[in-house]
Design brief:
The complex is a heterodimer of chains A (256) and B (221). By secondary structure, chain A is of the alpha/beta class. Chain A has two domains: 163 residues, Rossmann fold; 69 residues, no CATH class. In chain A, the strands form three sheets. In chain A, strands 8-9-10-3-11-12 form a six-stranded mixed β-sheet, with helices on both faces. Chain B is mainly α and 221 residues long. In chain B, 78% of the residues lie in helices and 0% in strands. The longest helix of chain B has 39 residues. The termini of chain B are far apart. The chains are: A alpha/beta (256), B mainly alpha (221). Chains A and B meet through α2, β8, α3 and α5 of A and α5 and α6 of B. Chain A: Keywords: ATP-binding, Nucleotide-binding, Transport. Chain A: GO terms for molecular function: ABC-type amino acid transporter activity; ATP binding; ATP hydrolysis activity.
Chain lengths: 256, 221
């Protein structure tokens, strides 16, 4: 598997007068796990969604393996076809799973292979089965999402993304909508992916995951990237007062 | 009351009812198709196109069907649109029903969670494929009860076609009434026919709804 590198340079994003991202600079190294952390409303999800251009950034550059996404040149939007081409190699997993409820687990995973990659039904099905087995759902392939737990749904969503053989995976708070006892199964699948050398960008509130799995942790606050570095330097010896206060709140909330 | 007269007029009324069902079915299908097209164009087209369509919706919804039918049937020839009663009636039903169906489809599309559309975009699915594979199936499920409801309303709008001499049930009932002066009997028969039709549609609608929502009932914990 070839892993992508992402360069984010001076990215700005406005919602009307509100500036959601302020001159964000960040390099996502290939084959590594980068966790985006920070208080809610800090812009981490917005930044993540700029990487596959689900969110259109207004200024700056997001490059995937050197190629600018969303624009042909500054201010000139990329054609839909070119954007779709780039998105094929970027997998995304959402907080709300976003499985298609009218399709079975297998159909959810096979859909992109058939409609986007142009695989035959049979090949797509075989590959979808592999992906589902990989996330431990070999016995749930015929289930519709309504017949799956949250953790199982999220694993189907991960299978749907990895079946497309992406070179980069984006996770937008993948465990935030889950009951606490279902978080583990999803994180386990993500760790397996990380161990295989997938480039991963993960917006998360799971500090444990960030501390143990991330190669890089980036902290955001109020649309700004405050600091990025190895987990130890950000989570254990934070220099910035905002990170210290964020971690203090986190520890207080999670202690009993 | 004397229903003996029905022996004589029965076949004519039945033919009328057949025409009613036919006009309703075709009119509804055409209106639904046009409504769906309008809703899709409203969702994706440029602003000025949407503005024109919105004007069409407002005008058609803002005027009585009876008036629209008159304008179409008697005003049409002035611009070279000369239609027989039945085609005029069908076109009238199509035009009259389309904005209501368009609004029903629009709200059905809006009920599809944005995230499920984004999930399709994120894997690089083309917009048309998204419409076909995600937006339509899910939007139709949300829209179904309202679609059935408005189709039922349309059954009763077909009686208005009698004023441009479409030989549907109302037209035959009026003929029978003026020939026999049995106004009450004739109209009761008409009521019975309509009630049977509506009941059938509503049952079919519920059955269809149960079928297509089978997998969508999420059990929330």
């Amino acid at each position: 598997m070839q892993a992508s590198q992402v360069e984010i340079r001076k990215v700005n994003k406005f919602y009307g007068p509100f500036q959601a991202l302020k001159n964000v600079d960040l390099t996502i190294p290939p084959g590594k796990v980068t966790c985006l952390i920070g208080p809610s409303g800090s812009g981490k999800s917005t930044l993540l969604r700029c990487i596959n251009f689900l969110e259109e950034y207004d200024a700056g550059e997001v490059r995937i393996d050197g190629q600018l996404i969303g624009y042909d040149a500054p201010g000139r939007k990329m054609s839909g076809r070119k954007l779709r081409e780039m998105r094929r190699s970027i997998g995304m997993v959402f907080q709300q799973f976003n499985l298609w409820p009218h399709m079975t687990a297998l159909e959810n995973v096979a859909e992109g292979l058939i409609r986007v990659r142009g695989l035959s039904k049979r090949d797509a099905q075989a590959r979808a089965e592999d992906a589902l087995r990989k996330v431990g759902l070999g016995d749930k392939m015929a289930n519709h999402p309504s017949r799956l737990s949250g953790g199982q749904q999220q694993r189907v969503a991960i299978a749907r993304a990895i079946a497309m053989e992406p070179r980069l995976m984006l996770f937008d708070e993948p465990t935030s909508a889950l009951d606490p006892e279902l978080v583990g199964e999803v994180l386990t699948v993500m760790k397996t992916l990380a161990a295989e050398g997938m480039t991963m960008v993960v917006v998360t509130h799971e500090m444990g995951f960030a501390a143990h799995v991330a190669d890089q942790v980036a902290f955001m606050d109020a649309g700004e990237l405050i600091a990025a570095g190895d987990p130890a330097s950000i989570l254990h010896q934070p220099q910035d007062a905002r990170i210290q206060s964020f971690l203090r709140t986190y520890h207080e909330r999670n202690s009993f | 009351m004397d229903f003996g007269i029905l022996q004589q007029y029965g076949p004519m009324l039945l033919r009328g009812f057949g025409n009613t069902v036919l006009c309703w079915a075709l009119g509804t299908i055409f209106a639904m198709a046009l409504g769906l097209l309008i809703a899709l164009v409203q969702r994706y087209a440029a602003r000025w196109v949407r503005w024109i369509i919105q004007a069409y919706i407002e005008i058609i919804r803002g005027t009585p069907f009876l008036v629209q039918l008159f304008v179409l049937y008697y005003g049409g020839p002035l611009i070279g649109l000369r239609l027989d009663a039945v085609p005029a009636g069908l076109l009238g039903l199509t035009i009259y029903g389309s904005p209501y169906f368009a609004e029903i489809f629009r709200s059905g599309f809006r009920a599809v969670p944005v995230g499920q559309i984004e999930a399709a975009r994120a894997i690089g699915m083309a917009e048309l494929t998204i419409v076909r594979r995600i937006l339509l199936p899910l939007g139709l499920v949300s829209a179904l009860p309202a679609l059935v409801n408005f189709s039922i309303i349309l059954t009763k709008e077909t009686v208005i076609l009698s004023i441009i001499t479409v030989p549907e049930l109302m037209y035959q009932v009026q003929r029978m009434s003026t020939e026999t002066f049995r106004y009450l009997e004739a109209n009761l028969v008409l009521a019975l026919f309509f009630w049977a039709l509506v009941e059938t549609i509503s049952r079919l609608g519920r059955r269809l709804e149960r079928r297509i929502t089978r997998h969508l009932l999420t059990e929330r914990t």
